[in-house]
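cron nightly-structures :: item 1 of 1
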Amino acid sequence: MKIFYIVSLLIVAIVVVGYLLVRNRGGAKSIEVAGMKDFRCQGISGFSFRYPVFKNWKAGEFEKNGQYSCKMFFDNPPGISYEVARQVGVNIMPRTGGGSGGVNKNSLAGTEKNKNGVNYQRLENSFSEFPSVYEFYDGDYDVQVGIIAGAEKDGFSERIFWQAVIDSFIFSQ
């Protein structure tokens, strides 16, 4: 009878542990947008865009870190850490003479247009510190927006981030 009791407890323990493992098996957290923020960086103007702030990912303020650039850092959610801080960078490249920044304004082949009429494209193999970069084109300057994103399993969606930035990006008149 004692053996039966021990085997029964063992079976119950295996079933409970198995259930917990299957239930918690690295499944992605649902992505929740806590709100939207407008890009603002002191001394930088001429364009605007909105970006999502994900639940538990507190977004800091953009701070100028060069004549033509700004950065904003996210606070990691509780219990999550990354070796490199999650962040967004914005670089403005004024065009001088023949159009030194990005593509030549007369040649926008390969770009797409957002609903505001702004040409943009994803930069592949960018030399930027950001692994994911989009460039937005205007006659006077180009704007690069880059991100070091959090993981979807941690509640951050790079896809949702980019869709919001692309859809809302506009140059001021």
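cron nightly-structures :: done
Residues 29-105+112-171 form a domain with the Protein Transport Mog1p; Chain A fold (CATH 3.40.1000).
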